[in-house]
Amino acid sequence: MTITVITGANKGLGYETARQLIAAGHTVYVSARNKANADRAAQELGGIPLLIDVTDEASVDAAAEQVKAEQGHIDVLINNAGIAGRDRSPAKVTGADVTEVLDTNVVGMVRTIHAFLPLLQRSKSGVIVNVASGLGSFARATDPGRIESRIVNIAYNTSKTAVAMLTVQYAKSFPKLRINAVDPGYVSTDFNHHTGVLTVEEGVAPIVAAATIPAKGPTGTYTDAVGTVPW
Q1: Other beta carbons within 10 Å of 225
Q2: 156 an active-site residue?
Q3: Structure confidence by residue, pLDDT tens digits, 21-75
Q4: Of the candidates 76, 79, 83, the residue with the CA atom closest to the CA atom of residue 60
Q5: N or C: which end of the chain has fewer CB within 10 A?
Q6: Which entry of 15, 29, 160, 222 is annotated as an active-site residue?
């Protein structure tokens, strides 16, 4: 049985990823930063509720201890939790605005990997999936033919560039694990007020593919549903 933990799994991409992996036979810990949301989503999906606030180290550590006590290890960690940040023009963005987003989208990912790494290292084939974005790609952000070049969000886009580099650093540091970043694309969710052009089913395809990667599969990659995301 594959044991999987997904952060931010109470709605959107995390919820659909949990649904598909449960259908594929995974035991999925459906996490949220609010206990009621975690309980509701887990009950709907047939998963196990898990309280994780990635901005709170004590919360993340407690979640890892719970899973350790119940399972002894995990096989897959999907770092999906994230925030878009305040909707402000670039001239009005403050250091506090950027700090808030980085603390969730980047530092929160580090907190979670740090807490769950010992459990992943007990797996025969440990996998980490970091949900990134094409908005973090320098190549796409400067390509006038791509929608990413027309979306300016200083804090969020910068955070997703950092996620890609975190992925490389962790992949080099832990070669026995499969650690990859994925871009789900411009998906219609609450996150973007349903302005996206892809369905959640389409968006989670690369996430699920990375979560089910074989033990000899690639690591340190940055991909979407089509292939490699240019840096």
Answers
A1: 16
A2: yes
A3: 999 999 999 999 999 999 999 999 999 999 999 999 999 999 999 999 999 999 9
A4: 79
A5: N
A6: 160
